[in-house]
Amino acid sequence: MRRVKSSSADRQVWADYALIFIGVFALAIGWFARLYRLDFPRRLIWDEIYFPVFARDYLNGTPFFDLHPPLGKFIIAAGITLVGNTPIGWRIMPALFGCAMIPLAAVLGWYYFRQRVGALLLATFVACETMLIVYSRTGLMDGILVFSMLATFLAAVLVRRRRQILWPMILLGLTVAVKWAALPLAVPVGYILWRKGLLKPLLWTLWVPAIVYLSVVFVGQIASPTGAGRAFNDNGPLTNVVNWHRQALVNVSRAVPNEQASPWWSWPLMTRPVVLFYQNQGAGRVATVFAVGNPLVWWASTCAVIAGIGELWWRRIVRKTPIADHPLMPIVLGYVCLMLPWLPGTRVPYLYNYLPVYPFAILALVFWLCRLWRYRPWGAWAVVGFATCAVALALYFLPLAMGLPTGYENLQQHIWFESWDHDIFH
User: Fold this and answer.
1) Residues 6+ apart with CB under 8 A from 120
2) DSSP bridge partners of 287
3) Close Cβ partners of 286 (under 8 Å, ≥ 6 residues apart)
4) Element holding 43 (H helix, E strand)
5) Neighbours of 158 (CB within 10 A)
6) Which 3 state secondary structure label does DSSP give 275?
7) Cα(424)–Cα(258) distance, rounded to whole angstroms?
8) Are 64 and 70 in contact (CB under 8 A)?
9) Per-residue pLDDT tens for 353-406?
């Protein structure tokens, strides 16, 4: 009997070592993929025609109007200031935020799941998620937004005393100042603080994220006093803040048809990845920046959310047990609340609009894998096998995520479904 137990313990230890190795390897791949040949493509691609240009307009004092709050553009402008108005200058700050997102995910996994395996898995999946790699390599705000959301969620998890509640409130205001899409994050953050017995201080500090957010918008209107228009005016920053919000609310629901768009219900299935760049280099060689997610992580995380909802329903309705402090509650709340604003379908959305929601799906996936890890002797090695396959798929799709030259036939082999195909590929 002792030999059997010793053998089982040895296998668990080797599984630990294997997962650590996979995590370190994923970290190296994730950083490499986010930084290598960051200057390619050497022109503005996709929505880079907006955000780096607007960031440069802030620096040059050129009037413009954009429906998104200014913080993301301020961050991109910092990169242009440091490196210059070059492709690397446009992309360096999203790349740095993308690199920092990996250790941030490890810390979140450690403190949320209270297990080393949770930290390793969350960091591995963030590192090898090709969609996050794409948006870390482009001068866009989505990667910055995901980083800010993870930081805000972590800050809420770390709160132990009343005074510490200011940190998640400040970070929430800054996150919404990147994109309004993050506003529903207030629900899971507030839920965590409520379950910590901090409801009253939470309610007393709700003004903090509002003041932080409005302060950022106010600074934006000082830097570019355009209000609701595209020309400078003398209305004053307070009036311009009000007018900007009115115009942004009108524009945010404006539908602009595009053949790359996809309805919200299709995002968890990843039916329509977006092509940000395509170049035919001749001699059967092409280069593309194809914003496709890691299929294993993406689809497994969708299943994990469904299983999480089922788990909570089973516990509450069937078994009549409390679920308020179940670790899946903030995860499911975050996922559902961040998806809800897209249900009316008032604008034409794209797959990348799922990025603020996606971290909660990955958290659900990590939850179930942590549970699987406890099943001995095979559970830990099943988790190791899953993580290995996720990293392998990341390597498979990296040439498309990074814009590396590849053969046209190889590109076609990566188009797994007809809905993934685009006219520009032909």
Assistant:
1) 19, 20, 22, 23, 106, 109, 387
2) 279
3) 278, 279, 280, 405, 406, 407, 408, 411
4) none
5) 15
6) strand
7) 13
8) no
9) 999 999 999 999 999 999 999 887 788 899 999 999 999 999 999 999 999 999
